[in-house]
Amino acid sequence: MSPNVVLHDGNGRTGRMIMFKQCLQNSHIPFVLLDRDRAFYLRGLKEWDFERNYLIDTLLTQQDIYASVCEQLDFKKE
């Protein structure tokens, strides 16, 4: 399913919260989209049907940032 279907209603924050919860429930590193990377995220949504790597790369980068912050704060993965 295209991410555009999930977030088409314009309520992006709710959609991202659902994705965050789904990551946690499925033992994936969650992500928090940084304001500085919002344009990359929006491009990824727009281009999803043609080029999926834009969004995938953006979210993987956000996961790396989240993991790094957790490590700096000494959060333990259980």
Order of helices and strands: HHHH
Question: What is the straight-line distance between the termini?
Answer: 30 Å
- Estimate the mean pLDDT confidence: 84
Give the overall shape, derived from the CA principal axes: globular
| Class per helix and strand makeup | mainly alpha
DSSP summary: helix tally:
4
Beta-strand residue fraction? under 5%
Largest β sheet strand count, sense and barrel closure: none
- Radius of gyration over C-alpha positions, nearest whole angstrom: 13 Å
As residue ranges, the low-confidence spans are none
Q: How is this structure best described in words?
A:
The protein has 78 residues and is mainly alpha-helical. The protein contains four helices and no strands. The radius of gyration is 13 Å and the shape is globular. The mean pLDDT is 84.
Layout of strands and helices, then pairs:
Blueprint: H1 3-7, H2 12-25, H3 38-47, H4 53-72
Helix pairs in contact: 3-4
Brief digest:
This protein has helices spanning 3-7, 12-25, 38-47, 53-72. With 78 residues, it is mostly helical. α3 packs antiparallel against α4.
